[in-house]
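User: Fold this; tokens only.

Assistant: Input:
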Amino acid sequence: MTNPYQASPPPQPPPFTPGAPQRRGNNKFVVFLVLALVVGGAYGASKVLGADKGKSSTSASASASPSAKPTAKDPGSPESSSDTSSAWKVGDCGGPDASKGADAYKRTGCSDSGASFKAIDIKEASILPGSIQCPAGTDVMIEVSISYNGGKSSGIPTNTVCGRNLSNEHPGDAGAGGGQLVKGDCVTSQAKEVPCGGSGALKVLGLVKTKEECPSGTTDPIRLTISVGRPYDVICTDG
């Protein structure tokens, strides 16, 4: 017979079932992967910044474009070459720079054997070559520019040097048939500059915007093709 006064034993706790073990190895792999991506990104950024820094360096190098003789469409176009040696001033001399190319120029001493011209004026650079007007007697116009990364191609124009030959040859003199077109020069009926005195040479009496502005004595005004920046559109000739 059971004893009604006997205490019942306490209930047993449920059996312990161990959970699935945590895979700590995967967490370590994820942490390693994140660190690798961070380090790799920082290295890549440093390389890009270093490259950009190298690209931004500036260096001056002399370069020249081929001489451009005046054409029938625009006889006012200057003979143009370029140089990047340094800042020019009136009275400086220059000459060809064979180390930079066939049409390159550099500053030299006026007594140097390589000197070929002297600067008689310095003009501000312009992206419109026809707008630059050098004084009478200019034989050559040198475009001074700055190049980057030591490049030999044309750079950013800064000034234009108006030069006069040191020799006795002065194609820029009025009537000589070269340089920029000026009053006193001669042209053909097709507006091509030629030395005065030749067959078919027409004397230039003025360079104006309209035919109505031509001076007295003009018998054959020549209207030119429109050129942005050029200060005249009509050549007044005596026919």
